Amino acid sequence: MEPKYHRILLKLSGESLMGKQGYGIDAERLASYAEQIDRLAKSGVEIGIVIGGGNIFRGLSGAAKGFDRVKGDQMGMLATVINSLALSSALENIGCNARVLTATGMFPIGEPYSPARALETLGEGRIAIIAGGTGNPFFTTDTASALRAVEIHAEVMLKGTRVDGIYTADPEKDPTATKFDQITYDEIYNRGLKIMDLTATTLCRENGMKIVVFDMDTPGNLQKVIEGQNIGTLVY
Asked: Which among 65, 77, 90, 141 has most CB atoms closer than 10 A?
């Protein structure tokens, strides 16, 4: 089937990489992600990826425990680099070419990120894994994803999560919560839904960047989203 989207920014949750371990990187989950991404790349889709770091360290929770907020956020940025290296290794192990680009200088661990470098990587048929958040404290990886999606001229930002879309309330806590097939940015604001932080949502809204929130942990879902099947929730 012809892909609905030809260039995407895929946001992956750091917490999802834990699998059932509760901490760190689960090898089976990582391999599943790599296989789904490889399948997409082989169909000709250009893929930029941003991964969170919550499976290793989260700046906000560190600040709550007494860490300096700036240093805590920097530690969180480093956690995203660890996850990005793990994903690039998993991809390369199955023959899928990937390049890690970092928001701050980290050679030889990763190459310095710039929009031109990322676009060059995509043009070469390689996956651009963009690590280190925005390179600045006080910004989440959701905001980094929104920014990178705009910078690489992605057609859509795909937010892979542990739930299958956006609900009226947290479905893990409220059994009466109902799922949206589509929702506008304005309705997210008005309902106070915590899909992403407001900075990320506003950046997408101002630049007309569509978002699809879907369950990445179910193998095959990423392909279904790319084919335009009605899974997850479209934010427009």
From this structure: 141
